[in-house]
Design goal:
The chain is an alpha+beta fold. It folds into 4 domains: 241 residues, no CATH class; 95 residues, Calcium-transporting ATPase, cytoplasmic transduction domain A; 135 residues, HAD superfamily/HAD-like (Rossmann fold, 3-Layer(aba) Sandwich); 107 residues, Calcium-transporting ATPase, cytoplasmic domain N (3-Layer(aba) Sandwich). It contains 22 helices and 22 strands. A hairpin with a 2-residue loop joins strand 14 and strand 15. It starts with a helix and ends with a helix.
């Protein structure tokens, strides 16, 4: 508990002691007698001890034009009860209201802590080497290219590359994974990781404001701004609901006694009506449930940008996947070399020379294969053509390397290669020179992840790729994908997502899952965009609604289960709160309900709803059930 919460607890206990003491003072037979004043003083002391701040907030809000809120309702009801002589009940209303507020504060604090513990990424300092000395500075004072020293037990303050030493990094705060990640010279490291056992030196590759830790912290801080539709509805509902019930209470206290003259009884019912009608349970528990769900997801390395995306994911039935890096490992390897009129080494050398200018994983795999064979790739000039391939001049020869569409565009008929994989064709001076087959293996856990999505009610599972049909269908069959859209140009993915979106049922959400590097338009277009393995990727953090920090595809069904559990808890709280309040309101109108029932309908329901909302933070059982 915080200091403020402890102070409030002490205040509640003091008020409760005074409240209990009031019952030991005998009830006075006459008003304004000594005994009457003593009893009033004790209950009034208990009332003011518990509720002075509520009265002050109500007065301050009214002066600012904000009349209809829970402070006004509690103040009006409790002051009214004190005026008509119901001292114990008026005091009880205020004490139990403060108990509910304390529960709310503790619950929110626990939920916030569940997130802040997970993203305790921001380092306090950085040890930087300058002029032969290691000095301690603020992380934002370190520039790109500088060398920082990270000792055992310290957090990595900035993104960079290890230039000295080796160690095991605890990346749980980033990925939710407990296993250590071994790093040595040449390996990339991300800010927010914890150095466990060895001293390392890191060359900084990004400023602190652009570091992974800073991006994730900003993502979480902004998540509260993206409210779910249910949250917005409850907020609008409370704005209308509260004035209506106040008018109803005034009518209940003023109209019936005109006919029967029993003013005291009807005023008491009206005050009870006010206590019952306080919308605390709804206003508190709904956002707390979503906040708890976001916190629970963060413990599993699932970063959700806002409650609205959690709500959308709960109704997702259509899942569209990018292939490379999402369903497959994204680490290509050369499987076959099929030359025409050349040797294997010559074909590989020419292709690698052209592909040196490209950052595409397939291009890198060809360059890597040539390096492994100690083949030297030389390029006079080169130009990458998006969606097709690369044109280059190598040793005076015009080399064209790319897909079958590229060959057809050049008027060259490529040879068909009936194998599973991506075929990279090569032409030399306008003549076909052969092809290289590059293969990307499916992820081991992709099959189980897609199976679990089906068990969760996924109606359609679709894979989008630029690969040719036989390679795409081979991957789809291996992982259990229902539909395949292949041979897509870069802008073709967005068009495919648009088409699927237009076909989906109105109340069904579409979820796009990509690697976050080149899928930004599709991630943004879907109802929910999930970036896979996008740790440190600007494109992912900017475009995706949910970021899976640990590259684990099995976290997609887990995220769906967390979203659905959260939505179920929200629904339970709304139904429970409205049902109890409606029942007590009806009893109050007919004189059956009293102030004690009203206290339960307000504070009791709020506490129960808050406790229920806190269940959203617990995700361990969900993962075990997958």
């Amino acid at each position: 508990m915080t200091k403020k919460q402890k102070k409030n607890l002490v205040r509640i206990i003091a008020a409760a002691v005074l409240f209990t003491g009031g019952f030991f003072v005998p009830a006075a037979e006459e008003k304004f007698s000594v005994l009457w004043f003593v009893r009033l003083a004790v209950f009034l002391a208990a009332y003011l001890t518990a509720g002075w701040d509520v009265l002050w907030k109500a007065i301050r809000n009214i002066s600012h034009g904000h009349v209809f809120d829970e402070n006004f309702l509690m103040s009006a009801a409790s002051v009214g009860a004190m005026i008509i002589g119901e001292y114990s009940e008026g005091t009880a209303v205020m004490i139990f209201y403060q108990v509910g507020e304390l529960f709310q504060s503790i619950a929110v604090g626990k939920s916030r802590k569940s997130i802040s513990d997970m993203i305790d990424l921001s380092p306090d300092y950085a040890n930087v080497e300058r002029d032969g000395e290691v000095i301690e500075v603020e992380p934002d004072e370190v520039g790109i290219g500088e060398i920082i020293v990270v000792k055992p037990g310290e957090k990595v303050p900035l993104d960079g590359v290890v230039v000295f030493g080796s160690t095991g990094l605890n990346t749980a705060a980033l990925t939710g994974e407990s296993a250590l990640r071994d790093v040595a010279a040449g390996d990339e490291v991300l800010s927010g990781s914890l150095n466990t056992n060895g001293l390392i030196k890191i060359k900084v590759t990004s400023e602190f404001c652009n570091s992974t830790a800073a991006k994730i912290l900003e993502l979480v801080e902004n998540s509260a701004e993206n409210k779910a539709k249910t949250e917005n509805f409850i907020t609008r509902f409370a704005r209308v609901y509260t004035p209506v019930v106040v008018i109803g209470a005034v009518s209940l206290g003023c109209v019936p006694p005109i006919f029967d003259g029993n003013w005291s009884d009807w005023v008491y019912r009206a005050l009870t009506f006010l206590v019952v009608s306080c919308p605390c349970a709804l206003v508190i528990s709904v956002p707390l449930s979503f906040f708890g769900g976001i916190g629970g997801a963060s413990h599993k390395g699932i970063m959700v940008k806002g409650a609205n995306y959690l709500e959308e994911l709960a109704r997702a039935k259509i899942f569209v996947f990018d292939k490379t890096g999402t369903l497959t490992k994204g680490s290509f390897g050369v499987a076959e070399i099929n030359p025409v009129g050349l040797s294997e080494e010559e074909l590989l050398t020419l292709c690698a020379s052209a592909e040196k200018v490209s950052n595409h994983p397939i291009a890198k795999s060809i360059v890597s294969a040539a390096e492994k064979r100690s083949l030297k790739a030389k390029t006079d000039s080169a130009e990458e053509i998006a969606g097709y391939g690369v044109k280059a001049v190598v040793c005076g020869k015009e080399i064209s390397v790319g897909n079958a569409r590229f060959m057809e565009k050049l008027g060259i008929k490529p040879e068909e290669t009936p194998v599973a994989g991506t075929v990279v064709h090569c032409a030399v001076d306008g003549g076909y020179a052969g092809n290289i087959v590059v293969r990307d293996e499916p992820k081991e856990n992709a099959v189980s992840a897609l199976k679990r999505l089906s068990e969760l009610g996924a109606d359609r599972k679709i894979m989008l790729t630029g690969d040719r049909k036989n390679a795409a269908e081979a991957v789809a069959k291996a992982v259990g994908i229902d539909e395949v859209v292949c041979e897509l140009l870069p802008d073709g993915k967005v068009e495919a997502v648009e088409k699927i979106y237009a076909e989906k049922p109105a109340k069904t959400a579409l979820c796009f899952v990509g690697d976050g590097m080149n899928d930004a338009p599709s991630l943004a277009r879907a109802d929910v965009g999930i970036a896979m393995g996008a740790l440190g990727s600007d494109a992912a953090i900017e475009a995706a609604d949910i970021v899976l920090m640990n590259d684990n595809i099995e976290n997609i069904p887990l995220a769906v289960k967390i979203a659905r559990k959260t939505h179920r808890i929200v629904t339970e709280n709304i139904v429970f709160a409205l049902a109890v309040k409606a029942a007590v309101l009806i009893l109050t109108v007919f004189g059956i309900g009293n102030m004690w029932a009203a206290v339960f309908a307000d504070v009791g329901v709020s506490v129960i709803a808050i406790i229920n909302a806190m269940r959203a933070m617990r995700t361990g059982n969900l993962q075990k059930s997958l």
